[in-house]
Specification:
Layout (H helix, E strand, L loop, with lengths): L28 H4 L10 H14 L2 H6 L18 E14 L2 E12 L2 E14 L2 E7 L7
Antiparallel strand pairs: 1-2, 2-3, 3-4
Amino acid sequence: MPQPMPSPDSLCPCGGGPSGAKPYAGCCGRFHAGPLHLQAPDPESLMRSRYSAFVLDLRDYLMATWHPDHRPALIEPPEPGLRWLGLQLTSARMAGPDQGEVSFVARSKLGGRAHRLVERSGFVREGGRWFYTCALEGAAPA
């Protein structure tokens, strides 16, 4: 079951970035709703907001930030009992003015078993907006 929506001053599920935990409203919440909706300024911010969207089961946000050339027809609801445990970004780099890559480890628990998703993700900026494209080759297995 996804976590309930955090209050604006609750800590963000993404962990808040290199400077530490931040309130949800000033971190990923500003990209999930409000004046900066869908306007993450860089690949790392979009990756963090997408992780938080998975935690909070914001499938509409996930679809809207997935590049149309790569997005699935639908995102299945999370399995009952799924708990997201944390996100660790291992690297973020620009591969050009409108392309970026973010490597991360996302930890979860389901049915008493711990899981790790390890991925190197691709991002592209089109029309001023950043989109997730796909897992890139060379990503470490989960």
